Amino acid sequence: MALISRVGKRLRRIIQRPGSVELTRYEALLPAVEKLEPELEKLENAELTERAGKLRDAIGGAASFTDSQLIEICALGREAARRELGERAFDVQLLGTMGLLTGHVVQMETGEGKTLAGALAAAGYALRGRRVHVVTVNDYLARRDAEWMGPVYDLLGVTVGWVEPAHSKQERKEAYGKEVTYGAVAEIGFDVLRDRLVTHPDDLVQKAPEVAIVDEADSVLVDEARVPLVMAGSIDHNDADEEVAKIVRRLRLGLHYETDSEGRNAWLTSAGASVVEKSLGGVDLYDESGSDRLAAVNVALHAHALLTRDVDYLVRDGKVQLINAARGRVAELQRWPDGLQAAVEAKEQVTATDRGEILDSITVQALLARYPEVAGMTGTAVAVAEQLREFYQLEVAVIPPNTPNVREDQQDRVFASPSQKLRAIEEEIRTVHETGRPILVGTQDVAESEELAEKLAKADLPCVVLNARNDAEEAAIIAEAGKKSAVTVSTQMAGRGTDIRLGGSDGTTREEVAELGGLHVIGTARYPSSRLDGQLRGRSGRQGDPGSAIFFASLNDDLVLSNAPDLPDGIDADTETGEITDPAAHRQLNHAQRVAEGVDLEIHRNTWRYTRLIERQRAELLEHRDKVLHTGLAADELEKAQPEKFAELKEKLDDSDRLEQVCREVRLFHLDQLWSDHLAYLTDVRESIHLRALARETPLDEFHRAAIPEFHKIIAESASRAAKTLEEAEITDDGLDLAEVGVRRANTTWTYLVHDNPFDSDFEQTVKKVRSMMRMKKS
């Protein structure tokens, strides 16, 4: 059997199957790690730290780890964790550590100890002389894990810190000065953007990126990969067209507008266009003079028809707050592109948020691509192994569980309609609740979670609801979901990173709950990704605990209607319950899910095709910016361009350092402003690129053809503008009166994330626009 297993592993590797990293090398090192235990146990704490220091001296600066170094790191880490945390790392955790230290994404099931495995790997990289960023999905986990693992790092002689939104610039600088820094992906990204706007080297908070260990790697590297992080500066109030919003609010689906089956696009019918044109005073939306109003109508229609309150967003404290589609939580600081954000605010009649000029942005994928070495860990990596390989050149190592998983994954129950499905879910909850087993129900959105909770309350089945309205209490709520008789209703993936322990957080009734059968997980519908299904199931059955999971579905769920609406003939439902047992129904569900996964992957690819060029241009510009920031290049250029004015300025300042800084600020202002203008130009090109497809031109090629010449003007133009500024500015005791000549940076800046592009690919947009135009011509 062992021979067959080895052959199977090698065969998977040869044919490049997902999850095919060979573990034999790591497994062979485990006996040597265990052999060191008696020796290390005899050492005093100071001696253990000294031994880690000797390892640091031996491997510092090396390009990779030898087997003997992996053994030493794991042995020292296991002993440090035993002393400081009271936890002796399992062999499988050490396998995970070695997988991370060799640059892989390791798949470890829920409850198998990813946090400790990641910490030992981070310490190992630090001992090799690398700065490490442990990238988390939220600020809570960043602080929790840094503090939790802190004593282990201390004993190994490795410094650790974390960044969070409340930190000052100095606190951030200190945190990034540590050898290991924990931070949410957005927070680390925002610091990158802030650093790209500094005008003095001392204001930088980060150092050059070296190693990233990504926690919940599937969420960060795949789900949020194409989400842009944005740095904006104040312009003015973000006023939407209130008149258009009122008009669109009166339009009716099927009469005035239509939507596609995926719910991603909406367009006016001829009747709808007539109503809108008449309401706007007789404008022609499809004439050049009405193009601005048409754009406003289209974005208002998108907000009205395609974005649903309590599904796509909440209105809380007088503000529109987006809901993260992958996690069902409020996406802090996240917003749609300005036009759509304003349209939703007008739709909900709330105060419009400020509009900003985009100073810089970076996608999560591009952020992680900055690190020369990347590794990651998650419970569900195999399902996205192809994407990890395609976009990051990362391979997946599947770590076996320490204790075999005994969770019972029951077959999906399929119903004809959502209402019949909901009745069956209520009955399932009642039946299981009567046994005393804890229940976790995963719903699709806020509205569904609250509808179900209301039905359960009427049926005298009390539950705790966890959704975007109370996500601040997420960790505390989910930690108690394993208590006897607990019923927890949650949107999407509740509490990733927080264990659901049988018997609750204190485990007082653990044995009793285990005897009852453990945690029972119920999914109210299949998710657009099988990986999300797996994540919900994985909340039950941690570390060999008993448990079970079941999904309920309907052939009228959004997943099916959007991705596989054409049902095969002959599927019959039970006349009383509406339940369908025909295997064809299950095949239809699986097909719909595969289609949804394919669409998501294509959107990812399409987005990356466009952003890849922007990232290359940004890298080239940043190289030049760093040269201006750290050298006297700006002063040299201005002296050559304006020798007389430069000499006058030099005499006035009487300091080389002050002179260089004034010149640097002028040059960087124009360089940053031109980059901001370039981003705005590229946005305009991207939004109108579908018109190129009408002329049978390739949109991506046309995008490149427009973007490249404009970019190559930036550096020379910034130098020219800087020279003109020096020529026109009045020289004062402080240097130059820059405000007088318009050199004024935004007095307010802020950061946010832009929601995934709500529109389809260029080709699909074009098809819909052509279809709409054809209908208009026919009418």
TrEMBL record:
<keyword id="KW-0653">Protein transport</keyword>
<dbReference type="GO" id="GO:0005886">
    <property type="term" value="C:plasma membrane"/>
</dbReference>
<dbReference type="InterPro" id="IPR001650">
    <property type="entry name" value="Helicase_C-like"/>
</dbReference>
<dbReference type="GO" id="GO:0005829">
    <property type="term" value="C:cytosol"/>
</dbReference>
<dbReference type="InterPro" id="IPR020937">
    <property type="entry name" value="SecA_CS"/>
</dbReference>
<dbReference type="InterPro" id="IPR011116">
    <property type="entry name" value="SecA_Wing/Scaffold"/>
</dbReference>
<keyword id="KW-0472">Membrane</keyword>
<dbReference type="GO" id="GO:0065002">
    <property type="term" value="P:intracellular protein transmembrane transport"/>
</dbReference>
<feature type="domain" description="Helicase C-terminal">
    <location>
        <begin position="417"/>
        <end position="589"/>
    </location>
</feature>
<comment type="subunit">
    <text>Monomer and homodimer. Part of the essential Sec protein translocation apparatus which comprises SecA, SecYEG and auxiliary proteins SecDF. Other proteins may also be involved.</text>
</comment>
<dbReference type="GO" id="GO:0006605">
    <property type="term" value="P:protein targeting"/>
</dbReference>
<dbReference type="InterPro" id="IPR044722">
    <property type="entry name" value="SecA_SF2_C"/>
</dbReference>
<keyword id="KW-0813">Transport</keyword>
<dbReference type="InterPro" id="IPR011130">
    <property type="entry name" value="SecA_preprotein_X-link_dom"/>
</dbReference>
<comment type="function">
    <text>Part of the Sec protein translocase complex. Interacts with the SecYEG preprotein conducting channel. Has a central role in coupling the hydrolysis of ATP to the transfer of proteins into and across the cell membrane, serving as an ATP-driven molecular motor driving the stepwise translocation of polypeptide chains across the membrane.</text>
</comment>
<dbReference type="GO" id="GO:0017038">
    <property type="term" value="P:protein import"/>
</dbReference>
<feature type="binding site">
    <location>
        <position position="499"/>
    </location>
    <ligand>
        <name>ATP</name>
    </ligand>
</feature>
<protein>
    <recommendedName>
        <fullName>Protein translocase subunit SecA</fullName>
        <ecNumber>7.4.2.8</ecNumber>
    </recommendedName>
</protein>
<dbReference type="InterPro" id="IPR014018">
    <property type="entry name" value="SecA_motor_DEAD"/>
</dbReference>
<feature type="binding site">
    <location>
        <begin position="111"/>
        <end position="115"/>
    </location>
    <ligand>
        <name>ATP</name>
    </ligand>
</feature>
<keyword id="KW-1003">Cell membrane</keyword>
<dbReference type="InterPro" id="IPR036266">
    <property type="entry name" value="SecA_Wing/Scaffold_sf"/>
</dbReference>
<keyword id="KW-0067">ATP-binding</keyword>
<feature type="binding site">
    <location>
        <position position="93"/>
    </location>
    <ligand>
        <name>ATP</name>
    </ligand>
</feature>
<dbReference type="GO" id="GO:0008564">
    <property type="term" value="F:protein-exporting ATPase activity"/>
</dbReference>
<dbReference type="InterPro" id="IPR014001">
    <property type="entry name" value="Helicase_ATP-bd"/>
</dbReference>
<dbReference type="GO" id="GO:0005524">
    <property type="term" value="F:ATP binding"/>
</dbReference>
<feature type="domain" description="Helicase ATP-binding">
    <location>
        <begin position="95"/>
        <end position="253"/>
    </location>
</feature>
<dbReference type="InterPro" id="IPR026389">
    <property type="entry name" value="SecA_Actinobact-type"/>
</dbReference>
<keyword id="KW-0963">Cytoplasm</keyword>
<keyword id="KW-0547">Nucleotide-binding</keyword>
<dbReference type="InterPro" id="IPR000185">
    <property type="entry name" value="SecA"/>
</dbReference>
<comment type="similarity">
    <text>Belongs to the SecA family.</text>
</comment>
<keyword id="KW-0811">Translocation</keyword>
<dbReference type="InterPro" id="IPR011115">
    <property type="entry name" value="SecA_DEAD"/>
</dbReference>
<dbReference type="Pfam" id="PF07517">
    <property type="entry name" value="SecA_DEAD"/>
</dbReference>
<dbReference type="InterPro" id="IPR036670">
    <property type="entry name" value="SecA_X-link_sf"/>
</dbReference>
<keyword id="KW-1278">Translocase</keyword>
<dbReference type="Pfam" id="PF01043">
    <property type="entry name" value="SecA_PP_bind"/>
</dbReference>
<dbReference type="GO" id="GO:0031522">
    <property type="term" value="C:cell envelope Sec protein transport complex"/>
</dbReference>
<dbReference type="GO" id="GO:0043952">
    <property type="term" value="P:protein transport by the Sec complex"/>
</dbReference>
<dbReference type="Pfam" id="PF21090">
    <property type="entry name" value="P-loop_SecA"/>
</dbReference>
